[in-house]
Specification:
The chain has 425 residues and is an all-alpha fold. The chain contains 16 helices and no strands. The two termini are 24 Å apart. The relative contact order is 0.20.
């Protein structure tokens, strides 16, 4: 379990799970089947591959600038252009939080709380997420490690059991056709829209050389869950029937009953796991927006709770402005296009800039060097001075950290010592 010395790779694994599949989780796979038809199986694989590529680029960016926050590394790579790019990323993340909360709110109202006012549910959900965000990235990581592990195991077990209830003739697999695969893959990319939040997370991993492996394993688990959901939905309702169901996964889970079991409705366990996933995802995004705001504006860190509260309030307003999930689904193509730019376009651009300018660990031992990349060892992120939730080490983030990196660049030693442990100040 991580501590002030950095986050473990297992915590990064669970945070990767928490950073994905929160948006549209309960309407999946309607859009996938609508665009892909019988090619939905291949479209899901394409969406997964794009999400994995975005996550991989985010982790590799952290390896380029060990010991430096994402905001600082953006400033070094892009200069003054970092500000509009990062502000656009924050704006997109805010919209994502609001839309994800709205999508989840509609499920709660239709299944659990049909008469409860919307504002009560949305304030409760985002309020709890904001409280979790105040525990800092290490607190969120520990919570994800504790609860998501059990939630994933229960989800895999129950959806695997649900396969015994499907109607096999509904599960039709044909040879792929290019256009439906591309259309359905792009339409389903909304499951991985906010994976670029890992840009903010990876600088806090203690052994970042294990980061790509942890992210890949997380995406393998996600692919397994997504295919189980897809096969169960198609096998239960058919390709045409999936389009007529508002919440296909929830409808499948309603069919599961084990007489005499402690919890006869097994689907309740999966829905609880989904609640936990959305809760972790919203907390992670609120933390990322707050941290980026503090470092971009230079506001005092003592005001962190008020900044988080402000972003939470705006997210509540956005979620309430959307009348229902059906109205939001109509905007999916446009929102997915923006998310594609944020999740893949921005990481590709900053990697290209780093390669062109020779930034990062250096040509000899960096990811873009001619020789073999040397993984940084024992990186202390936010330093050994981390003493509690939300506390930060001055020598890792902020303008002074950026100035030190620029000095190393000018001296030709951008990688040397960046990952060394620093003594407490």
């Amino acid at each position: 379990m991580g501590n002030g010395h950095g986050m473990t790779s297992s915590e990064l694994f669970y945070l990767t799970l928490g950073a994905t599949m929160a948006l549209g989780l309960f309407t999946f796979p309607r859009e996938l089947v609508m665009k892909g038809g019988f090619d939905a199986y291949y479209g899901l694989l394409l969406a997964w591959a794009l999400g994995l590529a975005a996550a991989w680029m985010s982790v590799r960016w952290g390896q380029l600038f060990p010991g430096l926050s994402a905001i600082g590394s953006f400033k070094i790579a892009l200069g003054w252009l970092a500000y509009p790019v990062l502000l656009a990323e924050i704006a997109f993340t805010l919209a994502f939080v609001g839309f994800a909360a709205r999508n989840f709110l509609d499920l709660l109202k239709s299944v659990f709380f049909p008469v409860t006012p919307e504002v009560v549910l949305i304030v409760a959900l985002l309020g709890l997420s904001a409280y979790q965000a105040q525990q800092g990235i290490f607190g969120i990581a520990r919570s994800a490690e504790i609860v998501l592990g059990l939630a994933v195991l229960v989800t895999l077990a129950i959806y695997s059991f649900a396969l015994t209830k499907v109607y096999p003739p509904f599960i039709v697999i044909h040879a792929p056709h290019l256009l439906p695969v591309v259309e359905s893959g792009f339409a389903t990319f909304y499951l991985f829209l906010n994976v670029h939040v890992l840009l903010m997370v990876t600088p806090f991993v203690k052994r970042l050389n294990l980061g790509p492996r942890a992210v890949f394993l997380a995406f393998v688990v996600l692919l397994g869950i997504a295919y189980l959901v897809l096969v169960n939905c198609v096998g239960s309702f058919g390709f045409i029937g999936v389009l007529r169901v508002a919440y296909p996964p929830a409808s499948v889970l309603r069919l599961l009953r084990v007489e005499g079991f402690l919890i006869e409705r097994l689907g309740i366990l999966v829905l609880v796991g989904n609640i936990v996933l959305v809760y972790i995802n919203l907390a992670l995004n609120l933390w990322a927006m707050t941290t980026a705001t503090i470092e971009l504006t230079g506001l005092p860190r003592a005001g962190r709770p008020w900044i988080t509260l402000g972003w939470t309030g705006l997210a509540v307003v956005i979620s309430l402005l959307v009348p229902n999930t059906a109205a939001f689904i109509k905007t999916f193509p446009y929102f997915t296009a923006l998310g594609f730019l944020a999740a893949i376009g921005v990481p590709m651009t900053i990697h290209a800039v780093a390669w062109a300018r020779g930034l990062g660990l250096g040509r000899r031992n960096g990811p873009y060097g001619a020789g073999r990349a040397k993984p940084p060892r024992g990186i202390i992120l936010w330093g050994e001075a981390v003493t509690g939730p939300g506390s930060e080490a001055e020598d890792i983030i902020g303008d002074r950290a950026v100035a030190r990196w620029k000095a190393r660049l000018e001296a030709g030693t951008s990688g040397g010592g960046a990952g060394r442990r620093r003594k407490n100040r």
